[in-house]
Amino acid sequence: MVPAAAVVDAWAADRTYALARCACSGTLFFITILLVHSMALLEIFRIAFDALIRNKMRSLLTMLGIIIGVGAVIAMVAVGTGAQTSIEAQISSLGTNVLMIWPNSQTRSGVSGGGGSGTTLTEEDMSAIREQCPAVARISPMMRSGAQLVAGDLNWSTQIQGGSVDYFTIRDWQIANGEQFSDQDVRAATKVCLVGQTVVANLFQDQNPIGQTVRIRNIPFKVIGTLKPKGQNMMGQDQDDFVLIPYTTLYKRLMGNTRNWNMLASAVAKNRMTEAQDQITQLLRQRHKLNASEDNDFMIRSQTDIAEASTATTKIMTTLLGSIASVSLIVGGIGIMNIMLVSVTERTREIGIRMSIGARRRDILAQFLMEAIVLSLLGGFIGIMIGVGSSTLISKLAGWPTFVSTSSIILSVVFSMIVGMFFGFYPARKAASLNPIEALRFE
Prior knowledge:
Strand order of the largest sheet: 5-6-11-8-10-9
Distance between the termini: 85 Å
Number of helices: 13
Number of strands: 13
Order of helices and strands: HHEEEHEEEHEHEHEEEHEHEHHHHH
Shape: elongated
Strand content: 15-25%
Helix content: 55-70%
Structural class: alpha+beta
Number of domains: 2
Radius of gyration: 36 Å
Largest sheet: 6 strands, mixed, barrel
């Protein structure tokens, strides 16, 4: 007698085998269907391509609108994106998570001096921000003054900037050679300086500036380091044409005591810049004893605000240029529809013969629709090459920054296919709806 457990195991094994066979059969069936449809699609593509090859010049002229449209879209978007990328890079050169704090305008005898002319910010405010604003990582004064530099028998007019040790980190300014000044230099108002690359090129030329003496307003300063280049800022100003000294040295030895304090601060993280800005605002309003009805006597601008303001116009121009260029794609689509309608008329008898030997209406529809898609896709690919080449040529000849993004290329291909399907559907439907008998009689 066979044990019950053995019977159950045998039944389970047979059932598993049956299920496996069903699964394999289903998979093979699915793969077969895919292959059949793929072969049918390839055959439709081959027939459509052969039909286009027979009329090369007409096909090329039909694709011209798509070629020009796609090329223009890619080139224009590349110019706009390049400009936007350049602006973003310049904004990044400001530093890491930067917040700029200025005193507000000062009014004398009814005349406003404009933003930054007030004297409402103090060194005590800076210390309070450092101690009481947890979202602020670092803070430094940002003082400026123009002066003539003299080294040996050469001189150069440049900008003198004063900052603390934190200035290097906030601005993300790297040392090329030498070293940066220390907290001791700041406390003692030491006569040391670091120079930008433009100053190095014009004042020291082929000499090593480290350890040399420059005179600023007839006061000797020792060069202890040089800064790595940053290039131009958003306003086209040379960021490397300056000398950096301790802020205490600037206002004690060169400017005299001053209350016109500007500050640079950095947030602990990019996603906490708004929090840092709010903390500074609340603290300064409290310290300056401003009531709810009074405006701030200071201004705060974040790196994000500057980036949004600077790139807004560029984004608008990029969108406008892309939209104008897209009109050519619509014109190209209309050209495809026109030629496909002519093709349907010319090949009416061919359509009748194909229907009489078994071609279904959906086969005719697929053939003519595929022809329109192939036309638009070929035009799109040629347009992409022309657009990339044009953007490169614009960059070299005009000196404009350009950037061809992968997304713009993919969008152009997809849009070309959509144009072909949209404008090719009506002629394809017209071809599929022909009466086979009347089509055979057509001369």
